[in-house]
Amino acid sequence: MAQRGYINYLRLEKSLSVNSVKAYTADIEKLEAFGHRYEPILLPSTIVPNDIRQFLKEINDIGLSATSQARIVSGIKSFFGYLLLEKEIKTDPSELIEAPKTGRKLPDVLSIEEIELMLNHLDMTKEESTRNRAIIEIMYSCGLRVSEVVDLRISNARFDDGFLRVIGKGNKERLVPIGSMAIKWLQHYFEQTRNHMLIKTGHEDNIFLNRRGTKLTRAMIFTIIKDLTMKAGIKKNISPHTFRHSFATHLVEAGADLRAVQDMLGHASITTTEVYTHLDRHRLKEEIISFHPRYKV
Question: Long-range contacts made by residues 184-188, C-beta under 8 angstroms, separation at least 24?
Fold first, then answer.
């Protein structure tokens, strides 16, 4: 299939991140593998809507979630849209294909007390704990994605002004306010740990480093959070992204403007940010059921 041109299109014209390009490419590779089972092989120019429906039926039958199926449909539609744009096909076989309904799952959110509980379980006698504390404070203070945390650079920090310059999805830049507590722990991390490290060439500008003096990985931050969750005895499904959800939810609950929250999170659409209003309503409903005399049996 015409993947090379499509990949360049995603990178250059759509300005998608490396991870997004990989995801879209993987979707097309799945469709390509499906097409190679036929004789003759199904090509973009010969695929018809029923072929795509059969492909989607197969990925549904193997138990792929509705969310994963919807993402694959999105990737397929993007690919055929590109081929139509390049005039490599005359009609788009995916045009009338609908993605499965996924609903909008409400993410787990940490309370302020649970965040404090996790922080209290950091063993501050360990060298990496100051760094780990700074990471958690940054995630909760700024609502960053884990990929944005590992990519934070010293040259993008404006501590005197109280802002971080963040490179988000699609290489889009935004300025995010950073709280005084996060700044305090970043300063501790630099003074107590980072300033005394032997840093590998090419990683001098990265804020968060591992013991080898290279950029911290996303997987390592997941491990740090999972370990703290277990030590704190929290039973929720917690990941680095939970701190982003908690950041936004606590802002909305306190009455923050939804557009301001959208800007801080770097959401392209306000619809994505609106999930936090649903979270707030869900919490309010629970409060009413628990405490209102007319809801008690």
Answer: 184/137, 185/130, 185/133, 185/134, 185/137, 186/134, 186/137, 186/138, 186/157, 186/159, 188/130, 188/133, 188/134
Contact between residue 177 and residue 156 where contact means Cβ atoms under 8 Å apart: no
DSSP letters along 216-243, please? Answer: PPHHHHHHHHHHHHHHHT--S---HHHH
Which residues are annotated as catalytic?
A: 145, 169, 241, 244, 267, 276
Tokens of 262: 């959208």
> What is the residue whose two structure tokens read 């480093």?
209
Q: Give the C-alpha separation, 56 to 271, whole Å.
A: 27
Per-residue pLDDT tens for 222-273?
999 999 999 999 988 888 889 988 888 888 877 877 788 787 887 766 666 6
Residue 264: exposed, middle, or buried by beta-carbon count in 10 A (0-12, 13-18, 19+)?
Answer: buried
Convert 228-258 to b/e letters by CB count within 10 Å (16 or more is b): bbeebebeeebbbbbbbbbbbbbbbeeeeee
